[in-house]
Amino acid sequence: MxxxxxxxxxxxxxxxRRFNNQHQNWLAGEGAWPLVVALGAPTDTxxxxxxxxxxxxxxAWQSRSGPGExxxxxRQFARFGRHRFPVRLSFADATAVxxxxxxxxxxxxxxxRYQQMLSRWPTLAQSKVLASKxxxxxxxxxxxxxxxxxxxxxxxxxxxxxxxLRQLPVKGLxxxxxxxxxxLVAGLLRSLREVSVDESDFHxxxxxxxxxxxxxxxxxxxxxxxxxxxxxxIEAPIGELAALPxxxxxxxxxxxxxxxxxxxxxxxxxxxxxxxxxxxALHVLGWLQGxxxxxxGDIDTHGFAILDxxxxxxxxxxxxxxxxxxxxxxxxLWVQEPSLCANAAFAELTVEERRVxxxxxxxxxxxxxxxxxxxxxxxxxxxxxxxxxxxxxxxEEGLGPSAAPNWSDPLELDDLTE
Length: 418
What we know:
The chain is α/β, with parallel strands linked by helices.
């Protein structure tokens, strides 16, 4: 059969693709109707070369049943006289197309639920947010759809409840159900309220109380641990950590958790682990004020962005093992940063830190160079870190090998409360 002649099977495939591409627009009331599909037209040459194929094609359309109207026309051929052939397949509306491609149930379910939600919230008609959720409208189990509508109704009526997610009084709702659908609910709620709140922070949009940010620290000093009942590794909301009765001499901030848990005892020292961009919350920890603060992160653009953010709240902060010499000395350990952070002024970086950051962005050492903290040699890194914490080696102190300083020696309690 000539390729230009569209068979019923090929027309079905075309309609299925059109439905998949356009069903959201059609649900929103868009689209030009009727939808007409051209079936092609045989020529004298087509009939002369394979009359049987042309006859089979025409008969397939004559015997076709189902949605859509097949339109026939009389054609005059120079060599074969006058014949009646199919020329177009026409569909009056989206329902007919859906039925033709086996999507009747999904289409009817989606349109029914779409109209139900529009009648309750006409504002949703002002955008295509609801129509873009076609799969939700078509495929949600009845109990899930009812739960979604009930939840939206409650959130609209209680925009600032201040409840925890677990406390929402919506029948059948559980935290896992909502957490999996937070993006869906947030998108619909933003459209209902016509607001531009960041969709990722669904607690703010839903008016819910957000669980307190938890921070993990380790007290590397035995004397500090005595102050808190012997605890060493502590994870708690940052506001509760602020109430700890400690006043460390030094604080180490590391981005790698494994590094933090492996650090040895150091007199008067606390390590804070894996904060990321949450370093800006450190201002809550009053016992940090007056402490020597050292930051050790990855040598990449995001690492310097976090460093800048940390120094905004802790001006005394110094970086360690994030300099050009460290980077260049460990070239075999380089990997690629997945993506560069958004460029910014980063006014809190030192001249040297800014130069390394700028060179990373400019790919001076290669594309998206990254040296991860955890790839550095442990013993050498510890020597540099302890020097930064002013824990001098026995050589620097003029001591013999047997008199090496003990990093575990505690400070006197009086020193901790100066």
